[in-house]
Amino acid sequence: MAWKPCATMVFCLGLAVSVSPPVLSAHVERMSVREITAASPNIVAATVEGLASRWNGPRTLILTDYTLRVEERLRGAAPDRITLTVPGGTLGTISDDTCISVRLAAGARYLLFLGDLDHPTLTPVTGAGQGAFREPPDALVQAVRSLAERVPLTRRPEQPADPTLPEKTWSPDKFLYHELAPRPVVVNPLTDSPFAPWDQYEMAYWNRYGGDLFRALDPPSPTWAYNNGVSDMVGFPNDATMKRQFGYDWTDLGEGVVGVTFARREGGILVEADVAFNPHKSWTLDDLAATGGQDKIYAFKEAVLHELGHVWGLNHPFDDGAKVTWDSVMNYKPRQYWVGELFADDTAAVRRAFPPGVAIHDGLISSYVTVPGQVITIIPDYQTATPSPSTVRAGGAFSLAGPIKIENVGTVPLVNPVVEVYLAPERLSFEGAVLLQRATVRGRIPSGGTLQVKLKNLKVPRGTPAGAYSLAYFLRDPKDAYQDNNAAWSLDGVTVTVVP
Known about the structure:
single chain; six-stranded mixed sheet
């Protein structure tokens, strides 16, 4: 068929300590440590005494049971020994995995934020693994004990991010995959859905860098089933359908799960990956609604792009415990940053997994940077560039408190890239936008590289009408083969007010 292209976690515990949960896995709602505490009726320090994999009752999915010896209770009345059951595991040559699986190491000690032990779900660790800390230092345990005493079992707003930004350039090359699907990956696409054919557009987006990676089943099948050797874009199955096909409904998977990929591997090859999205969440194709306001409306473009990464075999970059500082569509991130784009780490990953990939001249610009996580170090914090001052007279000037970033998602170096900065009357639109500066960034960004750029002395032209403006950025490069990722916008609510 012809492809159509598609257009913080931060909490100050009062101590300097670096910790890493084992494996986070799904599009799961990003949670702060305070939110994790508020959502966890049980918090324990425990050691993994053993683990065993088995089939579930209907033999649709391999599960793993972890036996834990509880050493300390920071909240709740957990028994001395508890068993946590999570999806995923290996029996013989068959392996099942989901993107909400959590893997614990036998003999290791963990600080665990857990749900209701009397009514367990398949995500017993809060946030699908965001609440698991391996070999926690005593200082962290003490700090969490104090936090558990202060924070009741209710969801609290996420704490603001630390505005301190390091001046740093890095070239991420830490993508993670183990067992791949054979190329081309044939996917049964969405059919009877208002979100079709956006799943196919996002397959085409991956193909832009990976070549003949995805193909849509043609003609598509209106029916689907798990464990039939066909990868399906399931859509938004209700609880009864989830229970019938996978053996579990959305309640079983956990409240924070927005989307999930069920993957079957045989002999080290990914033979099937079925993707389902939570129908109990609000979804949209409207980028303005998806990244704005406080309502929990989720961007389908970002979610399907993320899950398609799992379909070809890409893991979260933090799944092996790496301390991730770079951007990726496979990261967990605040909803305002669900921009539906592939970053340098993602495009390098697909080229490495399926060589030679596609040679392309392509840069990307973002209105924010990612920095090392403050407490949960394997997930980066996202920090946006804000105007300082935020109110300025026409003819005056302001600077950005914090950098923006340019990434080379292509295969040829970006030399002296040009960045334009605008005041935009409407976010996500250049209509009526006022050019403030056209800056040449001297240097060379290699393939896969990321450069932080600080912009200062942005002068507002005299005669600019009074009002509140969003900031817009454009990477001006006539050689760029894919212009859809050359524009970026300040977050909703981040504005410059021009006064007479």
